[in-house]
Write the structure tokens for this entry.
Amino acid sequence: MAVDFSGLQRELEAKCTAASSARELMESMVTTLHDRVPHYHWVGFYLLSADGIMLKLGPFAGAATPHTRIPLNQGICGAAVTLGETLVVDDVNSDPRYLACSLETKSEIVVPIYRHGKIVGELDIDSHTPAAFTKQDREFVEACARLVGELLEARAA
Ligand code: SME
């Protein structure tokens, strides 16, 4: 069955309005995305350290990952921050930047989160399906990352 991305986005916008902190929104977002989108098998936030050199694992849903800290020169996660853009990798095993989390992961999307024009973190999603992330997924995940950025701008994390 097709995923109702517009409905999910409206739900997340309502959660954003109701959330008392960005962390609360991130916690509820990872659970919602993981539980409601069948091809999102791991959903998590990485937050940039205050000195801007390390990504640290934030709220996530899915299997535990060994990658709790990722330097900016490593992984698809590091590359998304360094390049300052969304990265969609259709086949993670053919991307030399890829840091493996689970043998089952086949594709990945990483979307930077901006606060007042600066990257403060990212939303990372893995799928067990090859090339799982379509243009529609990308627009949806970018909208999710924007919601977190807007809340970070409006309130304390
Ligand atoms: N695959 C990521 C590492 C994080 S895990 O997917 C949770 C990367 O290559 O940066």
